[in-house]
Design a protein that fits this description.
Length: about 350
């Protein structure tokens, strides 16, 4: 039986189809974080036995991106790390995508998180370089198309996900259970995950990993301003809201003054991103919040999983706690095939069941 572990000691490795595919210890994918997934953060998660992804769009040009790949290889201590390839809806912004893949391959990257429409060509290029592709989307149909296009695994995020969760408003668990009825390749499930109990639940559902972003925003290795991280650890789950609903590309963010400004413009009829000017660009949040700590300025990707973040601490400590909680939840589930304990949640559950069936 699993016993509670010291949060500073690494949790034992767990084996799933995704941990085997990627050569990692824990079934945790730390999805790419625009502006924030730099070498230090990604390498910290790699060393902790998870998989994280550098975001090429966060860098000022190819030289800075190449330097990040080089630094991450050095800091990851031989552990695998990945690159996030988010395709824009505007074709002109995708010109560098093939080069980003090739540079990553040259630096030994063997795992890519792809996002956006028609990933077939990307997956072919990634496979030709001997790497694996995990395609992330918010729709079961898109996940099935990615499987058909050759993705080695898919990641599905529900409406709770920080960033762009899609328009269908289905929760992670609804998406996941529906997807698992039809998918063959392994699934990583995400959106709102911030406690290890949810990891155990996702694995019990049939997923082979989880994908997480928000919970790691308070990692020590995230370069964003300390004031912002201090603000985040005080936020409840309800501090996340969905902005830009009318645009067709909603954005799950921290509720702040910029969200109010966006709502005012929406009331005046604004719909397309361009109509919101600088307010709806990620650069505003980077310049004022991440660099200067002003958390009231910018659309700042964040989901309700922030409600689980109660301290600024090393990413490795967060991973250890998550996996400890997950193993405890799994062992509770396994114990349910035996006698019901006299005290505790199992006993309560059994007595409630008796009442409702009497
Ligand atoms: C600050 C932040 C930035 C993000 N940037 C990206 C990105 O550039 N590309 C991407 O594919 N996903 C991005 N995401 C989504 C995450 O990779 C991940 O799918 C999501 O955070 C999972 O849901 P959770 O936030 O509820 O854990 C971002 C999320 C956050 C919180």
């Amino acid at each position: 039986m699993f016993r509670h572990q010291d949060a500073t000691r690494a949790a034992p490795p767990l084996r799933t189809r995704i941990t085997e595919l990627l050569g990692i210890d824990h079934p945790i994918l730390a999805g790419g974080l625009m502006w924030l997934s730099d070498a230090r953060y990604v390498a910290a998660l790699a060393r902790a036995g998870a998989m994280a992804f550098i975001t090429p769009r966060s860098f000022d040009g190819p030289d800075a991106y190449r330097a990040a790949l080089r630094d991450c290889s050095r800091m990851a201590g031989g552990r695998p790390f990945g690159v996030n390839i988010t395709q824009s809806r505007r074709a002109a912004e995708n010109a560098m995508v093939p080069a980003w893949i090739d540079m990553a391959l040259e630096h030994g990257v063997r795992c890519f998180e792809t996002v956006g429409p028609s990933p077939g060509r990307l997956i072919e290029r990634i496979h030709a370089g001997g790497a694996k592709a995990i395609h992330k989307s918010a729709f079961v149909e898109h996940a099935l198309k990615a499987e058909h296009a050759g993705a080695d695994a898919v990641a599905l995020v529900g409406a709770e996900a920080g960033g762009h969760p899609g328009t269908n408003e289905l929760s992670a668990f609804v998406c996941g259970a529906l997807a698992l009825q039809r998918l063959t390749v392994p699934l990583a499930l995400g959106g709102g995950i911030g406690d290890g109990r949810q990891i155990a639940a996702a694995l019990a559902l049939g997923a082979d990993a989880v994908v997480m972003g928000t919970r790691f925003l308070v990692s020590e290795e995230i370069w964003a301003h300390e004031n912002y991280k201090r603000h985040l650890v005080r936020q409840p789950a309800e501090a996340s809201t969905l902005a830009m609903r009318a645009s067709g590309n909603p954005w799950r963010v921290l509720d702040n003054a910029t969200v109010r400004d966006i709502e005012r413009l929406e009331q005046q009829g604004a719909r397309q991103y361009a109509e919101f000017g600088a307010l709806a660009t990620g650069r505003l949040g980077r310049d004022y919040c991440y660099r200067q700590g002003d958390w009231n300025t910018g659309l700042l990707s964040m989901g309700p999983a922030i409600g689980f973040a109660d301290a600024i601490e090393p990413a490795a400590s967060i991973v250890t706690r998550l996996m400890t909680q997950a193993m405890q939840a799994a062992s509770r589930l396994a114990s349910m095939s035996g006698p019901v304990p006299a005290h505790g949640a199992g006993a309560v559950f059994a007595s409630r069941t008796r009442e409702t069936t009497a």
